[in-house]
Amino acid sequence: MISYARQNSDGRPELAAPLADDHIAPAPRVSVQAFCETVETAAAVQTAGDDRRLDKAHLKIQMGGMAAAVEAYRSAPTPNVIVVEADSRNNILAGLDQLASVCDAGTRVVVIGRINDVSLYRELVRRGVSDYVIAPVGTLDVVRSICNLFSAPEAKSVGRIIAVVGAKGGVGASTIAHNVAWAIARDLAMDSVVADLDLAFGTAGLDYNQDPPQGIADAVFSPDRVDTAFIDRLLSKCTDHLSLLAAPATLERVYDFGADAFDAIFDTLRTTMPCIVLDVPHQWSGWAKRALIGADDILIVAAPDLANLRNTKNLFDLLKAARPNDRIPLYCLNQVGVPKRPEINASEFAKAIESQPIASLPFDPQTFGSAANNGQMIAELAANHRTTEMFLQIAQRLTGRSETKKPRGGFLSPLIEKLRAK
User: Fold this and answer.
1) Is the distance from CB of 81 to CB of 35 less than 8 angstroms?
2) C-beta atoms surrounding 284 within 10 Å
3) What are the φ and ψ backbone dihedral angles of 10, each rounded to 5 degrees?
């Protein structure tokens, strides 16, 4: 499909804020070479190369456009993806004919041009061009064009990773992560998996009343075995739509990992699950930072005190800077209203962080304690509890879904609903 860049009043490309449902799956390890004609396009491609979704791609930029691309590959193999910029219809078609004579089989070509013409696009498709992007281009246009080459259009919603992390230990981030995942699976009817990344002390198995013999540790310590079939064997089924990749929660070994230790697991889960909820422990390591930055959406859980405010601010600022082309992180307040405890209210939090919390969950030790001890979610224990609706609202914000998936009723359903309302 032809891609269009938004423009400011002065004609320059505008970087639009990503929408909740504007999900772009990351590209695999591929080589990308771009041949630009204008400095503006080169700058956009360079910025795209710094985006988290092209983190694994090896990007090289040269000037000279189509002519430079043809000359470069007369004596060199072509990469996985070639991005070329051309300024006129004749230059595009003639240049593509020359490029085809030196291009290796399997190489995908993205053309950046200034002609908005459907007949030209059809001709480009006929000649094997993978995508045509209308200039001037923005960063997200380049990211989307390259990443979409490796994801099927019908699988657009597959692979959304949501990372949940506490601003401080003991703020209930795991509890919120598990209940939100439950709402995503049950109320939004999305196949989901919870990955408990706290291998030593994770509580997902207890919260879902599961005790699987295998889990995420088997995958992280055997990276060469990780594939779809292997991960499927490690998943524990919680409900029809919810699975669990449990932590061992034992201290028999030390869980020291490199920064990319979980990459293969996340990549595999992306190919099979529409939604992956990461329960990220409160620690600052290479892999924890990488998991947060690489997620599609982030939820920070904080208690209403000064230490949580400082940590939320630090996390918020770092993640915004590291993910300039993504939605800003979201945060919620938990354990609000502890008796006799001085608290920082939501408006003060919002003023300091320059963003409103998406929810303020009340302190209710009786309900949450009973649910934890029974291995239940709040919705199971108390379906009408006020936090049940809050978890659903958080789930909708994180997934971009505004409506729940309700079963279709019969032709008398509207009348029955009116009678119930009366």
Assistant:
1) no
2) 9
3) -90, 5
Strand partners, 164: 279, 299
What six digits make up the tokens of 301? 């859980």
The pLDDT score that the predictor gives to residue 395 is 96
pLDDT class for 153, splitting at 50, 70, 90? low
Does residue 206 share a domain with residue 288?
yes
Rounded to whole angstroms, the Cα distance separating 276 from 243 reads 10
Neighbours of 409 (CB within 10 A): 10
Domain finish residue from 130, 154, 178: 154
Residue 162, domain member (yes or no): yes
Largest Cα–Cα distance in the chain?
Answer: 79
Residue 237, classed as helix, strand or coil, is: strand
Tokens found for residue 410: 């019969």
CATH number, domain containing residue 330: 3.40.50.300
- Same domain for 75 and 12: yes
48, 57 contact by CB (below 8 A): no
Burial 5-26 (b: 16+ CB within 10 A, else e): beeeeeeebebeebeeeebbbb
pTM of the model: 0.80
Q: Any idea which residue has 């080459």 for tokens?
A: 149
Contact 361, 390 (CB under 8 A): yes
Distance CA 146, CA 149 (A): 6
Contact 288/281 with Cβ under 8 angstroms? yes
The secondary structure element, H or E, covering residue 287 is helix 286-294
